[in-house]
Amino acid sequence: GPRILNIQCPSSLVQGSNLTLYCNATGNPSPNITWIWEETGEVLSSSEELTFSAFNRSQTGNYKCLAWNGIGKSSTRTCRLDVPDEPLVLNLECPASIIEGHNATLHCNATGNPPPNINWIRKDTGDVLGTNEQQLTLLDVHRSQAGTYQCFAWTGISNSSINLPSGTRMTPDLKDTVVLAGGSLFLNCTSDANPTVSVFQLVFDSALIATSSSGMFSVTVKKTGMYTCIPVNEVGSGDSATVKVTVLDAPGFPIFVNNTVDTITIRWSPIYLQSATYTVNIRPGEETTWMNATCKQTIWNNKCTVTGTVAEVFGLEEDSAYHFRVYANYRGVRSDASLPSGAFRTAGDV
Fold first, then answer.
1. Terminus of the chain with fewer CB atoms < 10 Å: N or C?
2. What residues does 158 pair with on adjacent strands?
3. Same-domain status, 21 and 69
């Protein structure tokens, strides 16, 4: 009977490529060659060559070369044609919440042809944490491990996010705030810690001043400093949140410097904040109502607001008495008024 001498099959395939299968046989008489697709039994060619144009995944299967010359048994050899499937991550399983100090296990299921290898990568660092494993176990999890972990199956990537306790937030959400001396400051501390926070500690300049199970604090501010909120649970203390509080004091009371028939120049002691500005009020004679003064150094329209600690107030009546007071302004907050001055007089006409 006939004998197949050689069959040529491609070692790898790319979808959409052209390819040709070859099959050579010998016998006496010379055998006929037939190519059969075993998936359907369809005869595709009656020659030594079987040609495909733009081979696609739907044509995957076994292709049999059959040689027969009418004598004895036929001879067959088979080519297996496969288009590799791109890896695909089917699903990820990760815990909805993780308790710090406990273990966490992630699962990744992927498919592909050939079956893909799976690597676990921590996205923010690029560290490879596991290879050829569908399961990744993190032992004794710490908040420093919070982040995104990738299940990498060749070119198929899916992300799994692990949300560990990430710290504490404080309301108002400010790094620096300004309050009046003796004023009240309300702070609300929250944390996403797991286990939940049992108590919040409020620290002022390294000294513990209050605790709260709710995280709410009302503080009477007496001096400038740093307020820090620290969450505590059964694992220990967590990341803190800090706000700097600046106390805005009133400036010193106005002092007489000199006068003319329609001006009075005053000065006062500054507060310790160098970028503060000052606004001058005036009250004529025996009147009780304070009003905005008008001065030559003003930086705002209709108000005597200056950057220094001296103001020349003008537009006054000759030989008349006036009282003065001063406010400090800092980051949109106005201080309490200074103590009022005594009665300062403009000069009389000589």
1. C
2. 151
3. yes
The answer to whether 133 and 115 are in contact (CB under 8 A) is: no
Mean pLDDT of 77-82: 90
**Range of the structural domain that residue 204 is part of:** 177-248
**Residues found in the chain:** 350
| CA triple 194-232-208, angle to 5 deg | 160
pLDDT, tens digit (0-9, with 9 covering 90-100), for 129-164: 877 778 888 888 877 787 788 877 764 444 443 433
8 Å CB contact between 261 and 347: yes
Q: How far apart are CA 141 and CA 104, in angstroms?
A: 7
Distance CA(179)–CA(334), nearest Å, equals 9
Final residue belonging to a domain, choices 200, 232, 248: 248
Residue 336's Cβ-count burial label (10 Å; 0-12, 13-18, 19+) is middle
Q: With respect to residue 58, please indicate whether it lies within any of the assigned structural domains.
A: yes
C-alpha–C-alpha distance, residues 342 and 110, integer Å = 86
Q: Report d(CA 179, CA 193) in Å as an integer.
A: 30
Q: How many domains does the chain have?
A: 4
CB atoms within 10 A of CB 263: 16
Please report, for the domain that includes residue 341, its CATH number: 2.60.40.10
Q: Is 149 exposed, middle or buried (0-12, 13-18, 19+ CB in 10 A)?
A: buried
> Using CA atoms in the order 327, 329, 332, 336, what is the torsion angle rounded to 10 degrees?
-30
Contact predicate 223/180, CB 8 Å: no
